[in-house]
Amino acid sequence: MRTPAGWEGTEGTLARELLMAGHGLHTGRRVQVRIRPVAEAGHGIVFRRLHAGRQVTTLRADPALRVAQPLCTMLRAREGASGSTNAGAGVRTVEHLLASLLVCGIDHALVELDAEEVPILDGSAAPWIEAIRACGRTALARPKRFLRVKKAIVVADGTGAQRREMRVEPCVRYEISVRNDLKGFGDMLWQGDLTPEVFAREIAPSRSYGRVKWALPAIVAGYVKRTPILRGARLSCTASIVGNRVIGGLRMPDEFVRHRVLDLVGDLALAGAPLLGRVSALRPSHEMNYRLLSALLADADAWEWAECAA
How many domains does one find in the chain? Predict the structure, then answer.
């Protein structure tokens, strides 16, 4: 197949190591990340958690290792799971980094971190895009692989104003249409041809967001249930909503729906390659994103791997 416009035609890895530090949105803990180049065929994106310099667990970015968590995507080792070394250990909030690696053409890398959660940085993917581009990309002598959608898959939940629906169908490009609504801000729609440049310019700067009045009870409930939720939320890393306004303002009028696109791209990146398909989403969430990907991969007639011509 011909390489879709804007995408690299070969697999790639980083040209040099990337170092980044920050705190986790949900755990609030300080974390340092080192992303190492890997040229090995079939390696993919692999997370390695370290503690005091010793390995805790190694996890492939694989939908089979995804576990449901509030407000983020988490990978967790399971007994007997491929690539895991410590059942129960995990890495959370991987979606922004996965989206950034995908659109920057980084197919193979080892992501080492010394805590459970990938740092939230400023709440967007823009710092990751900037850092990855600064490191550079090394093209590998292997054709780029895409996941080509062959037939429509639909998943839905709820009714009326609470209905959520996700659809993926065949397309020669990676197209996305996301519709979302938020009280006080109205209906928002973003749609377009997803390319690395479009993502970097229109999607990556959008931040995680939430209402302050909901965050405080969620933090308390998280402590009660021993599940970290929003312990690291700050004005510096979230678009914090009070009433019908955002403290400090929005980066763009429809920032909220663009961030839904960011999360969607990151969650679908667990497939291991960009899609050749049209994704349509009504009120997407991390759970619905996963349900769509899971339903697609479960139907062997709905998809196939496609490689770029040499």
Answer: 1
Is there a domain that residue 2 lies in?
Answer: no
pTM for this prediction: 0.95
Among this protein's residues, is 26 annotated catalytic?
no
Lookup: tokens for 271: 């497939």
Tokens of 62: 């694989």
Binding residues, as ranges, are 96, 259, 263
Residues belonging to the binding site for Zn(2+) are 96, 259, 263
H helix or E strand, kind and range, residue 216: helix 212-225
Per-residue pLDDT reduced to its tens digit, 22-61: 999 999 999 999 999 999 999 999 999 998 778 889 999 9
Tell whether the model's pLDDT for residue 99 goes beyond 90. Answer: yes
Question: What does residue 131 show for φ and ψ, rounded to 5 degrees?
Answer: -70, -40
Indicate which CATH number applies to the domain containing 283.
3.30.1700.10
CA 40/CA 117 separation, integer angstroms: 26
The catalytic residue among 23, 26, 108, 286 is 286
